[in-house]
Amino acid sequence: MQYGQAKANLTAQLSARFGEGEARAMSRLIWEAIFQKRLLPAADLELSAEQSEKLAGITTRILDGEPIQYVLEHTWFYGLPFRTDSRALIPRPETEELVHWILETNGPATRLRVLDIGAGSGCIAVTLKKKRPLWDVTALDVSEAALALTLENARLHDCSIDTILQDMLDPTQWLQWGQWDIIVSNPPYIPQNERRLMPEQVLRHEPESALFVPDDKPLLFYEAISRFAMSHLESNGALYLEINEFYAQQTQAYLRADDWRDVRLQPDLQGKMRMIRACKHC
């Protein structure tokens, strides 16, 4: 089959499931993955047997509801390509904004020690190291598989970062983790009762342990991170967190009560309170 006809067929199939606009964007990404380049060929190019087989496999998986980022095994984050698969959450635009906030308020000239708690794909840790080469960045996660993915992405960008395989919720491990200038985290923050609000493809394919917390403990990870950070940040250190917009005020109140200073909520580009920063001694 020629590329032009195959492209039309693919777009039609995707449009029936996802709508025309999203289908065209997805189609472009699929063809870039198949041809391994962004400049696509002329419409009369004949697809090879290997390309046709690859296209069929990708199409089946996407129409079955698997996220395109997992199917193509990559996505873009803060202008950088990242390997993605079911070992970790797919990086989100809101997390890009959290990274931007950190970079915007901490210049490149200072050498800082940074800890990313719940690193997942490594999108935060690797991006910070890539953009601030002088920083010493460490990624922490409870999942050995997720940390392996973090290191794959670090190698992809020729970044040297350290890793810690530990459970943030186990305070008996905290003493060995050292002192930091910045602690950042995008922890699990979705109560189980909000599952009904989640897209089906997220529930079916992304790791639940990175998404959900018990209904009666919506701030479970924020409370643990706050206690840890209060004793493991340097005196002028800062804590940056991605948060659940529905618990923004509650999170801010908790951090203030836990003796943090200058606890500041930050809206995302949609105007939702999705980030918070707190200082140890401002």
Report on the architecture of this protein:
This protein is an alpha/beta fold. It has two domains: 3-64; 78-279, Vaccinia Virus protein VP39 (Rossmann fold, 3-Layer(aba) Sandwich), CATH 3.40.50.150. It has ten helices and eleven strands. It has helices at residues 3-18, 20-35, 49-63, 68-72, 93-105, 123-131, 144-156, 200-205, 220-232, 248-257; strands at residues 74-77, 80-83, 113-117, 136-141, 162-165, 180-185, 190-191, 212-213, 233-242, 261-267, 273-279. A seven-stranded mixed β-sheet has the order 5-4-3-6-9-11-10, sandwiched between helices. The chain has a two-stranded antiparallel sheet with strand order 1-2. Strand 4, helix 7 (144-156) and strand 5 form a beta-alpha-beta unit. Helix 1 (3-18) crosses helix 2 and helix 2 (20-35) runs antiparallel to helix 3 (49-63). It starts with a helix and ends with a strand. The model has no long low-confidence stretch (mean pLDDT 95).
Keywords summarizing the entry:
single chain, alpha/beta, 282 residues, two-stranded antiparallel ribbon, 10 helices, Rossmann fold, seven-stranded mixed β-sheet
Indicate the structural class: alpha/beta
What is the average of the pLDDT values? 95
The strand line-up of the biggest sheet is: 5-4-3-6-9-11-10
Instruction: Report the helical percentage.
Output: 40-55%
Number of helices: 10
Stretches where pLDDT is under 50 for at least 5 consecutive residues are none
| SSE sequence, one letter per element | HHHHEEHEHEHEEEHEHEHEE
Radius of gyration, rounded?
21 Å
User: Could you name the CATH homologous superfamily of the largest domain?
Assistant: Vaccinia Virus protein VP39
In CATH's first tier, which class of the largest domain applies? Alpha Beta
Number of strand segments: 11
Give the tally of structural domains.
2
Beta-strand level of the residues, as a percent range? 15-25%
